Amino acid sequence: MLRFLVFTTLVLYGHSTQDFPETNARVVGGAEAQRNSWPSQISLQYLSGGKWYHTCGGTLIKQNWVMTAAHCMDTPMTFRVVVGEHNLNQNDGTEQSVSVQKIVVHPSWNSNNVAAGYDIALLRLAQKVTLNSYVQLGVLPQEGTILANNSPCYITGWGRTKTNGQLARRLQQAYLPSVDYVTCSSSSFWGSTMKRTMGDSGGPLHCLVSGKYTVHGVTSFVSSLGCNVSRKPTVFTRVSAYISWINTVIASN
């Protein structure tokens, strides 16, 4: 659910001598978000045994389009998107569930090399959702925008509250100030693993810019040693690097 832009850091402690990206990790150390405080957050769910299960987060960017991580689409499944969600275990009375009609994964995505980048996908919904106080469109950054180091950001989703812990049932948020590319790509951090286009798996990174929260990241990967490894901040797909691709996909579908 919560994986992770080239731009973020959780609590930094511990150390590693050998490391590689892990796309099945979860953000840890979060707290329950105020109900419906992140109205563009979606729950991506898959059907199994007649029941629906949460698998990834995502962002509503149009009334019938959702942005998530490409790695969330690696296993063929029947998917649906739930907007207006807070508690996965109960009906909050604000949810809208819509089936996924089409999946568009970035053509350069390679599931065998997550560190190469391009971990982004768009989902066209079978119908438009209704916008209200619980369901809103996420605001995307302008193309090419680069966050300043230590910009205030929050990651949201239904991830684990501690490493190897239980998945959260209620929407969580965690404060993740950004780490700039120069720092994150240094040899003591992620080194050459970090790409300029990177950043609950697929979930949004909301950053405060000019008084408005903008979705700058799609959760991509963390260290294979855990979410709180020293100098291995969570990595996100940098949304501003894909604005043209997003616009082209939506316009042609």
Structure class? mainly beta
Find the count of extended strands (DSSP E, 2+ residues). 13
Shape: globular
Number of domains: 1
Q: Mean pLDDT, as a whole number?
A: 78
Count helical runs: 2
The radius of gyration over CA amounts to: 16 Å
What is the correct CATH architecture? Beta Barrel
- Series of secondary-structure elements, N-terminal to C-terminal: EEEEEEEEEEHEEEH
Question: What would you say this structure looks like, in words?
Answer:
With 253 residues, the protein is mainly β. It has one domain: Trypsin-like serine proteases (Thrombin, subunit H). Strands 1, 2, 9, 10, 11, 12 and 13 form a 7-stranded antiparallel sheet that branches. The radius of gyration is 16 Å and the shape is globular.
Topology (elements, then pairings):
Blueprint: E1 21-22, E2 31-32, E3 41-48, E4 51-62, E5 65-68, E6 79-83, E7 96-105, E8 121-125, E9 153-157, E10 172-175, H1 181-184, E11 204-209, E12 212-223, E13 235-238, H2 243-252
Antiparallel strand pairs: 1-12, 2-10, 3-4, 3-6, 4-5, 5-8, 6-7, 7-8, 9-10, 9-11, 11-12, 12-13
Please give a quick description of this structure.
The chain is mainly beta and 253 residues long. The protein contains two helices and 13 strands; from the N terminus they run E-E-E-E-E-E-E-E-E-E-H-E-E-E-H.
List keywords for this structure.
253 residues, mainly beta, Thrombin, subunit H, six-stranded antiparallel beta barrel, 6% helix
